[in-house]
Amino acid sequence: MCIAQVPDVRRLLPALLFFISACAVEPSVSPLPLHQESRRAILEAALWMPELPYPRKLLSAYGLESQGWELLPLIRDDVAAFRRSDSEHLLAGGSLPIDDLQPIQSLGLPLGQAVFHYFPMRADRWLDWLVQSPEHWDAVGLRTTADGSVHGVVRHIDAYGKPAVAITCALCHSAESKVADFHDGRATRALDLGLARTLWRQASGLSQGPEANWGPGRIDVTDDGIDSPTVIPDLFGLKHAQYLNCSGVIEVSHALVPAIRFETQYILGHELLARPSRHLTVALAEYVMSLESGTHHVEIPSAFWQHCAQCHDPEYSFSGGLIDAQAVGTDTAAATTPNRGTGYYKVPSLLGVSLGGPFFHDGSALTFDDVFVVHTQAQDVNRTAKRQIIEFLLTL
To answer: Which of 100, 81, 271, 246 is nearest to 171 (CA)?
Structure first.
């Protein structure tokens, strides 16, 4: 059952974000909903289960007048791609080069796309080790371009003023596909961050962690001590999303919720030491919500209307509201995790499913046929209807 309806404001979301991003100037106070009081109210409305630890953490520090994250310095936006030659330089005992860093606005890309590909999202010790271990890049799914740049990894100046490496949105959400060499929005299912972290632990003399069992295309971002990895999601259809996070802990109750969500992600990714300029996160949200799967569906068959459309609404990029986690038939761990467990899973968009699985938040269905075995509410669909639905999904 779907328990939420999409507010009318979502129909205007792309236009609203374009207007906001065109007018926003950081760090001055904007008369638009970027100013402090409105952002706080938007976040409060979006966190519909404020008693959970994750919402409490955000509400304890975000959008406060003279304390919390408002006082953090801005993340520096001069960046450059990390190249294979940089790895060789580090292995030879050199330091990370920074003489070619450029402001993100000068990279020759639309601002939102530049943020997606080059703005540092987070750093970690395993990444510092991995960029100096090119012999493992193929195994963990790091990809290099023709000029030797490592896709989704950048050089920048961190909050301590030191040269550093970091990952960007593109590492996890820009994969090779039949549409393009690097298709923004497509989950990087070959990326094995669990293996990367396991290899780093072995090299550092640390005991093996739960990430050794994640497998490619899966990651646990909850940081709550409970192992609940989920499949890296595609980002298609986000302009119609009603909830964010697989457990739906954030309701998209306002046009600015995705931008605020990205802002808090960067703050947490930078260990509460710096925050992104808000015109960058608004531009990023605008870009992500413009991403398309590159496929085009045909007429919707009656079997889809009968069995699927109640939750996967065609009017909203085949996405929907929330569904009781127990009713899906998949592992419920990610819906009940201490930090973000709502007891529900959000109904994701089906755009891009023709590009391949695995499917569901936990990757428990490798094929479309598996979906009808795993999903509790789809197990009684007859063979003819199942074939109609699968043939239609292959057009999305």
So the answer is: 81
